[in-house]
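Meet our chain:
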Amino acid sequence: MRLIDIEIGRYAWSAYACGCTRTAAHLADDLCRLAAAQSSEEARALHIENHAMIQSIPQEPAVPVASVLMAALAGDLSPGARFVCLDLLSGLVFNDDDSSEQCQQIARQGLWLLYRDLWSGTLPGITAGAYEVLRVIEDDDDRLRAYRDSGQVDLPDYLAD
């Protein structure tokens, strides 16, 4: 059993109204398939962003989805699945509403997982995704700057501060 399986099991998914207008019951299976995806194309094809967010605004299942994404990031994911998880998490933490603040708190609990992905250099998208989340959740700007400026992190130009 994986961490993501336990985290998915913690939530009554059918109690949440999904962004697709049904209950979020289907998200449990979709999130498992996301974690098992072998490519970003396979992971993106699940369109989880359309269920957890509508026009970049988090929906009812956003907080449980953020928690599951953090559990997934703690596990062994393909680079494509890791990229999509970070991209989804970035969207969930980006706003200033209550759901986004709760998603930010969840992401802060896994701060070092995000720094690992920032530092890994596995794929530019993984590095960028981790940095985008860290820019929102990191309370210690000096630490983030030190990692960013270490020479080990290669960020795309659009993320240059």
Notes: The chain is about 60% helix and 0% strand. The longest strand covers residues 53-54. Residues 79-93 form the longest helix (15 residues). The chain has a mean pLDDT of 94.
